[in-house]
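Much of the work behind modern protein science is quiet bookkeeping, done one molecule at a time. The protein below has been through that process, and both of its lines are reproduced in full.
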Amino acid sequence: MNTKIQLAGLSLLFSTTALAQQAASDTTATLHDQTLENVTVTARKATVRSLAGAINGKDILRDELFKAACCNLGESFVNNPSVDVNYSDATTGAKQVKLLGLSGTYVQMLTENLPNFRGAALPYGLGYVPGSWMKSLQVSKGNSSVKNGYEAMTGQINVEYLKPEDDQGLTVNLYGNTMSKFEANADGNIHINGNKNLSTELLAHFENNWSHHDGNGDGFQDDPQVRQYNLQNRWYWKSGNYMLHAGLAFLKEDRTSGQTTHSHHLPAGTEPYRINIGTDRYEAYMKHAVILNPEHGTNIALMGSLSMLRQDAQFGFKHYDVNEKNAYASLIFETNFTPEHSLSAGLSLNHDYLHQGLTLPPTVLPADYGNLYPLTGNIESETTPGAYVQYTYNLNSRLIAMAGLRVDHSNVYGTFVTPRFHLKWVPADFLTIRLSAGKGYRSPHALAENNYLMASGRRLVIDRLSQEAAWNYGASLAFLIPTGQKTLKLNAEYYYTHFLSQAVIDYDSNPELLHITNLDGKSYSHTFQIDATYPLFRGLELTAAYRYNLVKETFGGRLMWKPLQSRYKGLLTASYKTPLGIWQFDATFALNGGGRMPEPYTLADGSLSWARNYKAYGQVNAQVTRYFRHFSIYIGGENLTNYKQRNPIIGYQTPWGKGFEPTMIYGPVQGAMGYIGIRLNLGRHL
């Protein structure tokens, strides 16, 4: 038969471990005894809200990523109402994601279902994944499956790279912007002997930002100069019921920032305040999978990864270096006893090793830096073996209950138990209800994960920190409302995160001190979000969203709003593609709500050092794409409202003083920026 299928969005993500097999079986179960011939795929949504599984998640596909410049992972969430990406400070270029109103340290980062970008890789890791390398992103909220560990407290972000076994071809992406940044990306794969069962792939990336741009005239670069080389070689082999994925990766990055040499704030004979961060990162991974019984989805898989990061960082006269190593392994068994009952069980082992050194200027007293001094030769080492079991009950995809439990033992923190539960119920075709509850843990590496704080002139004191632990509870409603020939997609959700223990960065208790300490009191986050997507007419789709964050922590015995966190966000996106698919127009308007600044102090003249609160601000991004047979040209702009945080660097006139503070960032540091790029596609269908 000749069947035309309009796909609302289906992405079977092969990770050799068959981790996506259950979600795929949910989708394909109804097609088990059918044969389709001459199938034509006519459309695919760029963003897909997963309605099949129990976990509240969303797939961001390649078409969605291409609606913006998307130079790296940190720029992939421009159109996402759930995930925010903010600068950590105004000097280093470090960025962090925020999910459910909380820092990205509580979001578990994965690359193809392997934990990644931990410890010292966390502050700049969002720039380590080039946008053109990504095939898709999976974003889940709340506690995720226990398969991937105990660390997901507020959510999980998984990156799927382009695959060696994808259609053979070569793609090239060239990009440049008005801030003097240039990028070149290339990815190509070969099916050896013309056989997809043995394939290899090379991913290459180069970027160079050579600008000393200072748009606000404070004498400091608005954006660091970054030169990055990034290579990855990936392999795929399939023989019978055995599958292998393996690869090697290398990254070298140098970033330079600080005072410009021509700064008019630089007194004669004074050395400029400079920041230099050099990073070398090596990575290797492998995944083995054996399908034991295809009929019951029975398989066993072994996954593992190794990474090493060496970083040498200079913040003025402070010098910090770290040598970090991570090893991870996981053995997984999965089976479906019946179409209704499935089981997943496994073992895991994670090892983190950080060798750190800190050199302070002679004028700094050892007592000023508490437990940080002397840090030369300081070693943080943790080995955590664990085991998990997860049971899933699936009644015709109408009712899915997933319960998981894992037990881990840390040589530093002892034994701890992670329970998680997810429930999906479809009482009617137009309504899907999800509930979730679970616990998460995290081992903090305070200085490695927050090294940008070294740019501050304040004293930095780090206490002996406990393991972080939090409960997360969530509920969501997803509606599919027919309106004539179209469907309105409406989603409403609420999440509550409650910390039992937490590493808190205290800006408030002492104006001369940054104190990373253990939580002493309450800390919680309430997040409510509603979003709607509607195809206004053929080719034009609109999405509107509103999110409210109520996030409070205890600082110095006082329960306060979390500083530098917007209390709400509104988002409106529009995407239009002409009937022949030649032109595409995308625009995004974001309204970021106001919030609390850290507690100010009183100056000699009686005025406050800064305002107690900051106001809401809007941003507009837009892009136009012209498609040709084998290439496309895109041109666009970011932050077209030209909003910039006023005085992002406190005390920029005296960078060597205690009042120098570049880490209190809530908004953009740069103004409006334009860009242009070209994507070449030779032989590949994406």
About this structure: The first helix runs from residue 21 to 28. The radius of gyration is 25 Å. The longest strand covers residues 274-293.
